[in-house]
Structure to design on (395 residues):
């Protein structure tokens, strides 16, 4: 299962980014292979509109089963995530990636 | 003559000046006042109006027809606004993000994105006892003011000749809606207040008008409040101050009742007179 985090850095100790569409990175944890990889989302900086759908599209490319983020996606992005069947958990904006992962595993994050 | 009234900062008196200037000019001239702040039109609050015409306004958006679509993804590549996105085996369209440029539709090799009409707002044409009044209102949830402002300006241009004073009550800020509302104007009046926020934002508005190479002048509202930063700035940069509307309790009281000022407050009338004589001699 691929779990995607919205983050400000690329390792387990990095802070989460509470934003979805304008998150700095998407960090992917593959639970089967235990691999942590990341993609930069910094190319949305110059975009005035449509950062949410564009980010959701990136998630499609990452084959995300689960998204863990802070504030939660906006309406447009939420529509895309729903179509993709990606489960979304929110409220992890102030955690590190590691804390967010364990919060998810212990069912203490809110389902969006 | 087309005169746009803009401000930078919100709440500095655009609508107060627009409605009073329109009514004052209408004593002598043919006038049409247009409320181009389509996200929040409020000129009508200060006018007694009779509705004479209403029409829905539409924008064109693509609609996906999957029958012949090969999912080549060309549509999403040509869209600058991420309004069309390929997700796995489908094309999703986000109408609020679409700028109606037709690129996805025209460049689709299988004609799978025909453009369809979508209502974005409503335009109303009213009469007051002395001038015409037009306002447009964006439908709730629509994000883009520019296409509706453009269509509203077209409506006014087609119905009123150049001998009419066309007053545009513009949106606040310095972004696309303000550019659209002011770009065809012969003259722009920037109204501000002598506060730090008012000063900061009017400088942004001044720089915007200079960038657009617009002829413009400043009106200071609530004059007597705050400091002299705006006057000093205008002096130093050779910018014309057209009028100063005093900071008076009576003005706030009349405003709160939705009444016009110029026929009740002599200082407002004389300041409007200064604006009109400047317009007549310089524009």
């Amino acid at each position: 299962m691929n779990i995607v985090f919205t983050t400000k850095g690329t390792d387990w100790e990095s802070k989460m980014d509470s934003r979805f569409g304008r998150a700095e990175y998407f960090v992917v944890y593959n639970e089967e292979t235990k691999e942590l990889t990341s993609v930069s989302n910094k190319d949305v900086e110059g975009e005035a509109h449509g950062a949410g759908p564009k980010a959701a599209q990136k998630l499609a490319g990452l084959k995300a089963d689960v998204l863990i983020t802070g504030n939660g996606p906006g309406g447009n992005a939420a529509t895309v995530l729903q179509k993709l069947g990606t489960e979304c958990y929110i409220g992890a904006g102030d955690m590190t990636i590691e804390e967010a992962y364990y919060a998810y595993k212990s069912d203490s994050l809110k389902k969006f | 003559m087309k005169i746009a009234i803009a401000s930078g900062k919100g709440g500095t008196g655009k609508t107060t000046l627009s409605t009073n200037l329109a009514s004052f000019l209408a004593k002598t001239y043919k006038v049409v006042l247009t409320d181009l702040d389509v996200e929040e039109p409020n000129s009508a609050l200060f006018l007694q109006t009779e509705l004479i015409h209403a029409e829905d306004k539409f924008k064109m958006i693509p609609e996906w027809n999957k029958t012949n679509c090969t999912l080549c993804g060309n549509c999403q590549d040509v869209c600058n606004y991420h309004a069309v996105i390929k997700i796995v085996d489908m094309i999703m369209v986000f109408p609020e993000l679409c700028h109606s440029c037709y690129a996805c539709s025209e460049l689709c090799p299988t004609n799978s994105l025909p453009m369809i009409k979508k209502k974005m707002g409503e335009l109303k044409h009213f009469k007051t006892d002395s001038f015409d009044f037009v306002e447009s209102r964006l439908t709730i949830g629509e994000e883009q003011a520019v296409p509706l402002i453009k269509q509203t300006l077209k409506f006014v241009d087609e119905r009123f000749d150049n001998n009419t004073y066309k007053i545009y009550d513009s949106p606040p800020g310095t972004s696309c809606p303000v550019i659209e509302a002011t770009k065809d104007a012969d003259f722009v009046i920037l109204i501000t207040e002598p506060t730090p926020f008012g000063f900061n934002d009017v400088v942004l508005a001044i720089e915007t008008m200079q960038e657009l190479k617009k002829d413009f002048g400043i009106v200071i509202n609530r004059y007597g409040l705050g400091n002299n930063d705006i006057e000093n700035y205008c002096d130093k940069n050779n910018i014309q101050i057209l009028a100063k509307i005093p900071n008076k309790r009576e003005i706030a009281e009349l405003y709160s009742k939705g009444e016009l000022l110029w026929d009740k407050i002599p200082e407002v009338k004389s300041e409007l007179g200064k604006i009109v004589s400047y317009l007549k001699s310089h524009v």
